[in-house]
Every structure is written in structure tokens, then in C-alpha cells.
Structure prediction request, 158 residues.
Amino acid sequence: MKTLALVLVFGVVCFGFEPLSPDKTCPNLKLSEFYEGQFLNRCKEGQTPHCLIDDKNRHGRVCIKAVTIPAGECPFYDSERSMIDKRRCIGEDCPKKDIPSNAASIYEGCFQKFRYRMFSRIQMAQKSLGISKYPHLIYTTFRIYCCTVLLKFLLHYR
Prediction:
């Protein structure tokens, strides 16, 4: 039972944004391709499957709570903070009304390449206060450390 609980925790910590293969994009992804594999089973209660572009301009799938995105803006997955953020829509095919974040794949303008500003408002404040020179590295390092500890534990008590 302990191993099952640890596998579930390991999956929650280590699974996140799942990039699509380079030849596929969210707007052109078939529904059967979107739900292939065990992707839907990863979504916990309260989470919705999304196909989004991330802060590295990769198209991919992620299970996350849906949020409302204002008209003229698009959701994207912020992989540094493991959450949905929004940005101004680029191009002609943009949402003209508020949309749920999981509906973005019908708007081509939401999948145009963009430059993501590296730091959020909180991270900018941390940087200006000198709290951390590289705040995004702290989160990434912690996540890698947690995954490593859980993997070692699972391998040891197998």
C-alpha cells in the first residue's frame, strides 16, 4: 500500500506538461490523439485536460484546473510555476469574448510563437529585493530533488 501511495505522489510531482511530437500542434490535434494513452487518467478531480502552448513555445497536453481567460488574451502553460498564465493574443483568430482556458485550441492566434518574459511579478519583486538572483532555478531544483528522492525510495523498497 505504501508503494502505491508513493507511486501516486511520484506521478503528481513529476508529471506535468507533456509536449506533443514536433509534427503535431494543438489546433490540428485530433480528439483521439488528444486522449491517447493514459493521459486522461492523470487528471485528478477538479482538473481539466488542456492542449496549450508553453513558455518555451512547445505544444502539449496538461491536466490542470481550468481558468477564465479574458477576451483578446490566450492561456499558456508556465512550466516554471506549473500553472496557466495568460498573454495577449497574436494574429487575427483571437477570442472575442472570455473563454475557459481549455477552449484555446480553437483559436489559431493563441498558438503563435511569442516571447515569454522570464519573471512573473512576484519573481521580479524578489529579484529587485535581492531575495534570489535566480528564483525559477530554486523551484526547478526542488522539483528534481523531490523526484530523485522518491525514485530512490521506490527502488530501495521494491
